[in-house]
Write a structure and sequence with these properties.
This protein has 154 residues and is mainly alpha-helical. It contains 5 helices and 4 strands.
Length: 154
């Protein structure tokens, strides 16, 4: 058994796999939280975009909130899988010494990434995550000067 810095290699492998799993859960949970609460991630907010329902939400605060949370969870699951999860699995396999399987999973990760991204080039301009969740990415609608009533300042 190889010892590196007082730690055995199998322990390092388990720690690396645990860390990658933990990071994956944090990535999915944070994306779910920000999408459910604000409708946009930090990157979307900085570019003036948000995730909106493709069809109107049901009336009432309870059903609308539940449906919005369901859509956020679906979108977060598909996006995390396409962007992070399959790559993380390839990394865990590589750390475990499964080089050939790791390369195969990495190739699958690239295919999954493109399956999520390429539908944006189709007429609907929605990713696979948007299509599954029933959402669309749109620009923020800021209030305009015409929407504000005139006020006297003097």
């Amino acid at each position: 058994m190889i010892v590196i810095g007082g730690t055995t290699v199998p322990a390092l492998r388990r720690a690396t796999a645990w860390f990658i799993d933990f990071a994956l859960v944090i990535a999915a949970a944070s994306m779910l939280a920000v999408l459910a609460l604000t409708g946009c991630t930090l990157g979307k907010a900085l570019t003036g975009l948000r995730v909106a329902p493709r069809v109107p939400l049901p009336p009432g605060p309870g059903p609308a909130r539940k449906e919005a949370s369901r859509r956020a969870a679906l979108r977060a699951a598909v996006t995390t899988t396409a962007d992070v999860a399959v790559y993380a699995l390839a990394c865990v396999l590589l750390v475990e010494g499964e080089f050939l399987l790791s390369m195969l999973v990495w190739a699958v990760a690239v295919v999954v990434f493109f399956l999520n991204a390429l539908p944006v080039l189709l007429p609907g301009r929605r990713s696979l995550a948007d299509r599954v969740a029933g959402t669309a990415v749109e620009a923020f609608r800021f209030s305009t000067a015409a929407a504000m009533p005139p006020t006297r300042t003097s």
